[in-house]
Amino acid sequence: MKEKVKVELDEQIKCTKPFELKETLESIREKIKEKIGNAFFLDKDGNIVDKEDEKDMNLEDILLDSKIIKLKSSETNESNKKEINNNNSNPIINGNKESNNSKNTKKIKV
Hints:
Elements: E1 2-9, E2 12-20, H1 25-36, E3 40-41, H2 59-62, E4 68-72, H3 74-87
Parallel strand pairs: 1-4
Antiparallel strand pairs: 1-2, 3-4
């Protein structure tokens, strides 16, 4: 059975297309690759789906009740990875004792 689904990339609707509920994410990517580029699918909880898992997952696995597939652009993900890597230098995160000198510690967003 086909479902008419909205494809949302970085919180902007890119297209609306009919897909089978059992269709793999890999197949869906091929059909909409011009609209989504290298973007990552997000699962129902908003977590990134690894591209290697796309052949084993289907539309049902990620489709929200509102009939929307959410994706996040690869550029956004790269900047998030850089921010996380920069925050790893924080002595609190690395398990070292916190310095009494607040100038030596970085604040991170959680």
